[in-house]
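We modelled the chain as a single entity of 162 amino acids. Its sequence is:
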Amino acid sequence: MLTYLNRIALFLCLCLPFAGNTLCAQNVIRQSACDNATIRQQADSIKRNLIAAGFIVVKEASVTMESEYELPVVVPLTQGSWYQFVFIGDPESKLYEVRMFDWSERQVVYQKKMWGDVDGNVIRYDYIPRSSEYHMIKPVQVNKKKKKNLCGYVMLLKKVAQ
């Protein structure tokens, strides 16, 4: 029969491993979504057009960003496949940039748009990788009014055979 102290010791031995995982998990930074009707409408329109052109959505996310800070997005790409990447920034931001790097950290794409450009808050580009490997895409936007809680939207689409 277990004594009171043995019961406490058994309880602690069973619960502490779970408490440790919970405590460690609280240090994780989680990306949060945002909701901006203008960006959502732009994303839906672009997505409809690309799907009609034979693309499928591989990844998409609405994300909260901070002005002047890159948002790294890591994606596996297949050699010879045709991809379209889309970044939509907050319409009130003044500058939008996207850089894409291959696995060896070589920059393979760079695009920049300014507020006032036609579709200034949207950056789209096609990309066909030379080898199957992970790529890192780093969108950034600069907004002098709001330093935090800027809305952004990223999509990766892939052309499928028709």
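As a brief sanity check on the tokenised model: The domain at 37-159 is CATH 2.60.120.380 (Jelly Rolls). Strands lie at 55-65, 73-77, 83-88, 95-101, 107-114, 122-127, 133-142, 150-159.
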